[in-house]
Structure formats: C-alpha cells, structure tokens
Specification:
By secondary structure, the protein is mainly beta. It has a single domain, classed as TolB, C-terminal domain (Neuraminidase), CATH 2.120.10.30. Helices cover 3% and strands 43% of the residues. The strands form 6 sheets. The protein has a 4-stranded antiparallel sheet, with no helix packed on it. Strand 17 and strand 18 form a beta hairpin. The longest helix is centred in the N-terminal third of the chain and has 11 residues.
C-alpha cells in the first residue's frame, strides 16, 4: 500500500498530486502484508463519563485508538498494539462496536468491541482504505477504497459479516469521505465530478447524485448532524482549512471555525450542540471541541495529540 503522509502535511501534498480531497488521518504503514495475529488482549476499563470521544494518537509510540471523556480526562488506549496502526475510528449507532481502518493483520477495514476486544477484519485489500461509516441499522459499512489498479478513490460498501462488498460510486477523478444520513436514505461524500473537490449527496444505493457545493476550494469530510438537517465539513486550500456547516439542500452555509492552520475531521456531538475536530499545522494534530454555532475552540488533548476524533453515541 502507498505510504501516506502525516494528516496535516497530506493537505499540502494533495495540492501537488492533483484533484482529490486531502486525506484525513492515515498513519504510516508498511507494505501491505498479513502480520501474525497478536495475542488477544483483555477488555479495558472505559472512562466513566457520559460524554466521550474516540480518536487516534501515537502518544504511546504506535498509532492506536483511544477513548476519553469529552473534557480530555481518563484517556484510555483501546487497541494497545505493538505493531500495525489504526485510524478513522467510529462507533456503531448502538455504541457496542467500533469500526476503523488498520493493518494489524494486513490492510483492511476492522471492527472491534467498544472495550477493545474481539478485533476482526471485515474487508481486506491492498489498496488505500479510509473513512468507514456505519449504516444507521449497524449492518453495513461505507468507506473510501482506492483499488491498486484504479487511478482514484471510490466509495465502497460492505456488509458487517464481510459479504457483499462492492463499489457504490466511482468516477475517474475520485470520490471519498462517505457519510451515511441518520435516516439511512442518503450518503454524503466529496468528489471531483466537476473538476474540483466539492460536496455531493446521493441515495444510499448510489443513484440520484446531486451537488451541494461549487467553489474553487477543497471541500471534503462531510458529516451529518444528528437531526439530518445539516452537514459539517472542511473547506480550504494551501494548508489552511476551516470548518463550515451547510444545509442539506445547499441553501445555507455558515463558518464555525476560522483561524490559521488546518482544521479538519469534524464530527457532531450526539446532542448536536458541539463539534469535535482535529487541528494542527505540521505533523500530528490535536483534538478540539467547539460549539456548533461557532466560537473559540477548546483543546482537549494538549499532552498527547490526536486525530480522527468522533463522539461516542449517547445512551439516551
């Protein structure tokens, strides 16, 4: 598999190599090959707070998946691996499982229990795998896959048992960052259909594609609000990316983060009132939280950095 740059350097690289949304967080990995399975680790003691965030970090020397309270306390390593790497963690709608991409036993899309046990590969491939997201019913995963024989990434889908994998949407200049709507009817994604990275929405079966944005800037990483009425996304260029919110019909766009540097990888809190994201200028970033209405972001991982954050579903 190709070696990916650090998350925030990747944004600059994408401007050099051509059209394609800047990768979010894909830690460096070795050439794709199956590693021997590490010994199964026992469950971890999870943070006790009701408001939690999952993210990736290399604070312990390896790209692992961590969970913490939303205020940055009780950081807990879920994967605890000595080899391999993990990225793009996202909880299942019921909060029982976490999907992610990694190369623990060969490059693939993986699923594990919320306590770090039961790691299994759902889909394996030699190409670049990124951005998994769950169907609202928790039975399928949609993700970005760049097949080794393809020139650009495509939106793919697979059943949770590993069956039924197929390309859902593909076009010559690339499509990525798929996100399933809360009601399961739509999938938002970024694509170069029109020659530049813009946001699009399509039916969950890949039909009915319609464009949401049309600017000369990179627009990528759309994520649905809990009520399905809005999408938060990253927009920018030349290493300066900010966060915006757009109505699903494309009628209204507002900026919520505006500052120098690269603000990316947004995700809504379960109550829709806050947004977590990763930010930085070089190398690994850090995790921040900001009001969904905008304002001053608050850093919650000042001591160890972090990337690919998302919220743990609410128990309510």
């Amino acid at each position: 598999m190709r070696r990916s740059p650090p998350p925030f350097a990747a944004a600059l690289l994408s401007l050099v190599v051509g059209c394609g949304a800047p990768p979010s967080v894909t830690p460096p990995t070795e050439q794709a090959q199956d590693r021997p399975a590490e010994e199964e680790l026992g469950p971890v003691e999870l943070p006790t707070g009701d408001d939690r965030i999952v993210f990736t970090s290399e604070r312990d020397g390896n790209f692992d998946i961590y969970v913490m309270n939303a205020d940055g306390s009780d950081v807990t390593n879920l994967t605890r691996r000595e080899e391999g790497s993990a990225s793009y963690p996202v909880y299942s709608p019921d909060g029982e499982l976490i999907a992610f991409t990694g190369d623990f036993e060969g490059q693939g899309v993986y699923v594990m229990n919320a306590d770090g046990t039961g790691v299994r590969k759902v889909f394996g491939g030699d190409g670049l795998l990124e951005n998994p997201d769950w169907s609202p019913g928790g039975t399928q995963l949609v993700f970005t896959y760049t097949d080794p024989g393809a020139q650009a990434p495509a939106v793919s889908i697979v059943d949770l048992d590993g069956s039924g994998q197929h390309v859902l949407f593909d076009q010559p200049r690339g499509s990525c960052d798929p996100a399933w709507s809360p009601d399961g009817r739509l999938i938002a994604f970024a694509s170069c259909i029109g020659g530049n990275d813009d946001l699009y929405v399509m039916n969950a079966d890949g039909t009915g594609v319609r464009q949401l944005t049309d600017t000369p800037l990179f627009e990528f990483q759309p994520v649905w609000s809990p009520d399905g009425g809005e999408l938060v996304f990253a927009r920018g260029g030349l290493g300066d990316f900010d966060l915006f919110v757009i109505s699903v019909d494309g009628s209204d766009t507002r900026q919520i983060v505006d500052r120098p540097g690269s603000d990316q990888q947004p995700a809504w809190s379960p109550d829709g009132e806050r947004i977590v994201f990763a930010a930085g200028t070089t190398g690994q970033g850090s995790v921040f939280v900001v009001s969904a209405e905008g304002g001053e972001p608050r850093e919650v991982t000042p001591d160890g950095g972090g990337d690919s954050p998302s919220w743990v579903p609410s128990d309510e």
